[in-house]
């Protein structure tokens, strides 16, 4: 595989007008969603695609000044310089070339993630096989191409709003409904109770990263009480209840017996494995877009096998990221469930009220056609590589705009 060109395109999908979402003690402002489309082309003209642009709860681009624009520059400069003209015998060779650069570790990880996915797309096209078949050979397992999805929606609304949204998700056939609480302890408790009452077939999950962004607004005792209440009410999991690096906080909450989830904010594949091996999480959430691609997720998946930890990929971006993670789920043993983020006007969910979190038109427009989703299940494409067609018109239609995609503004500032 001889690399001819490596290109990164920073894209922005505007949220117009800007949306303000009230949470306990502040307001979250939503300006846009950013994506970096990475395109790799070989000497014979085969192209591979991937998306980058971490939207994890750690939000590095907001807290540390990075942006998707600067990452696209990294791809077009340092990464292109390191890879163009190189001949790769194995996909894994790309990681060594990127690690030989002087980039900071977190940018190396993001770049390896995108390149690993794009090169698997190329290799699948060269061999005429979907990525899940290539991966299944590595995992020595038979692929499963019908994948149940849980809907990732609900952000800072009144308890009844969450319940109404969850009912729509259940009617659409999804395995689960994940939402973002943080409206205050009493409101969060009431939401759990309404969901437990309203849902009959669909599980519910809490993504509570806002709690630790509140600082001491809730406090450790309140968080523990809310986690226990959610578990007692039948929550399938409680996600990121403490800061990602707070291993002791995870351990203390795990002692309650509550099913905890985490991993999307882990900075490396090694730290992802480490979290899974603490015994504190029941669900480990790696992501091919953030944990060095299909290759990087392999150790975490292997570490979960035969243990009471289920690998469930994090996925919170465009349909390209959805399909990439779907190939991983299809191929990997003991992995069965995938996150489906729901944005406004989702063409696959025609329902009222609209269960989408906010507009993210680029999420859909980046593909020609639509994923095969029916009754809350995804059929993984069986075409070569990722099995999708990227609409390159989005490069012109969604120009990048500077500035943070989201901001947390606190009432006491």
UniProtKB/TrEMBL annotation:
UniProt domain Mandelate racemase/muconate lactonizing enzyme C-terminal: residue ranges: 159-259
Pfam families for this protein: MR_MLE_C, MR_MLE_N
SMART domains for the chain: MR_MLE (SM00922)
Superkingdom to which the source organism belongs: Archaea
The name this protein goes by in its record: Mandelate racemase
Species assigned in the record: Natronolimnobius baerhuensis
